Amino acid sequence: MGNAPPNRITVWQLVPTGDGSRRFSLSSDYMILEHNHVDGRRVIKINDKEMHASRKTMDNGSTHDIPHNGSVYKVTIIATLASFKYECSVNGKKLTSHLERPSAVQEDLVFKVTEVEIETTMGVLESPTSKSGGSHSKAGEKVAVYTVCVHSKSAGGVIGSSKHRFSDFMEIYSTIRSMWGSSHLAKSIPPPPAKELKLTTNHYSPEFMEKRRAGLDEFMGKLGNFPGVLTVPGIQEFIGTDSV
After folding, report:
1. Can you tell me the distance from the alpha carbon of 77 to that of 173, in angstroms, rounded to the nearest whole number?
2. In angstroms, rounded to a whole number, what is the distance separating the alpha carbons of residues 123 and 222?
3. Measured between alpha carbons, how far is residue 117 from residues 146, 200, 204, 205 in Å?
4. Which terminus of the chain, N or C, has fewer Cβ atoms within 10 Å?
């Protein structure tokens, strides 16, 4: 196992039994397995709800039955000579992991940052995805707002959009780092544009705002190709597809 990060994360999209029409729905649930091959800890979640947590000091693998929506999903950790491999199945059918490659629904989507504009807040403005309440502005404050659009290749158009401050993008990035930063996917997490001090840079000049929009557009484009991004808490609201 060498110097690989100890946390291995695997994600499976849960297919509603007998309903092929919903197979690649944005509203699909996800099974998430986090396995630490050093201390034997394993945590299984469906979306952000913890379904199982345990630890095996002498880790020779394990199998866990996880009930969900009338079905029982079997999550298996298989010990091999040099590492571990992971499987999830339902009714004897193995599901495809979506951390080796994006899921089909994710491959249909393109994340873009299309516009930037200056807005003057009428009251206290808080990020809709903020958990800490740290992203806010006072009444009358000038803020730069960036428009995120999600294009569907199959639908041939925009299926979701939302507006965010730069700090909101940083918060999503921080959430992703907290989820995957200690896993084998850490090096695949795309970085957002670097912060620049307001003391030395005019954040409201057309040149700076376009530069930052282009940087955020590149960040979101790469994020759309990051396996498992649709499992990030708050991501559907952030990209404006929470009602799709």
Report:
1. 29
2. 34
3. 7, 21, 9, 11
4. N
